[in-house]
Design brief:
Elements lengths: L1 H34 L1 H4 L4 E6 L2 E7 L1 H4 L3 H4 L1 E6 L4 E6 L2 E7 L2 E2 L8 E4 L2 E4 L3 E2 L6 E2 L10 E8 L2 E6 L10 E3 L3 E2 L2 H8 L7 E5 L1
Parallel strand pairs: 3-15, 6-13, 12-14
Antiparallel strand pairs: 1-2, 3-4, 4-5, 7-15, 8-11, 9-10, 11-12
Length: about 200
């Protein structure tokens, strides 16, 4: 009988040792992740819209692999000179002319980040509900790069079917770009890219 009691105590001691070790390892891993924010943000959530389905969130593993340059990229939109500047490692690498929000529909200034990216977006008329598919008549052009959602308003960079208006204050808050420029910008950024909008 005494041998059985000793075996039970030994078994319990070993079990507590194993559980304690496992908890210690989990704690160390949690502390390591908390002290490295990039490890938490390495799998950004992307809003995806396809013609066959509604919006859905997916984990973009490609954004976490081989996108070091994109993570070091920052966009600075200067409303006063109507240009968006692309910075990489704090060095300006290129810029593109834009059209901005008109009086009463000004493009908001502040610090944001890219929340949505979409190729060949569809556009829905906010009043009539008419949907404009991918075509030369689509007001969103070839790309959508959203950086602000306020209620029903979505603000972002996008192409346009009226490239002759680039450089003017004509939009309803969004940032219009030439289609070739928004395609080039789209390829240089990822979800989470910082966007600074200066007045």
């Amino acid at each position: 009988m005494a041998a059985t009691v000793r075996d039970d105590r030994l078994a319990r001691s070993v079990m507590f040792l194993c559980v304690g070790s496992a908890l210690l390892l989990l704690g160390i891993q949690w502390i390591a992740q908390a002290s490295n924010p990039q490890s938490i943000a390495s799998k950004p959530v992307v809003k995806v819209r396809t013609s066959q389905s509604n919006d859905r969130s997916v984990t973009d593993h490609s954004a976490a692999v081989g996108t070091t340059l994109k993570r070091e990229t920052k966009l600075v939109l200067d409303l006063s000179d109507r240009q968006v500047y692309v910075y990489r490692n704090q060095q300006r690498v290129t810029h593109y002319p834009v059209a901005i929000g008109q009086a009463g529909w000004e493009t908001p200034s502040g610090s944001f980040y890219v929340m949505e990216m979409q190729r060949d977006p569809k556009w829905q008329h906010p009043i009539t509900g008419e949907v404009i598919p991918v075509s030369p008549a689509n007001p969103l052009g070839k790309r959508w790069i959203g950086f602000l959602h306020e209620g029903r308003a979505h603000i972002g960079f996008h192409g346009t079917n009226q490239e002759e208006l680039i450089g003017q204050a004509v939009s309803h808050g969004c940032v219009r770009m030439r289609n070739r420029d928004v395609v080039a910008l789209y390829d240089q950024i990822t979800i989470g890219t910082a966007v600074e909008v200066r007045p």
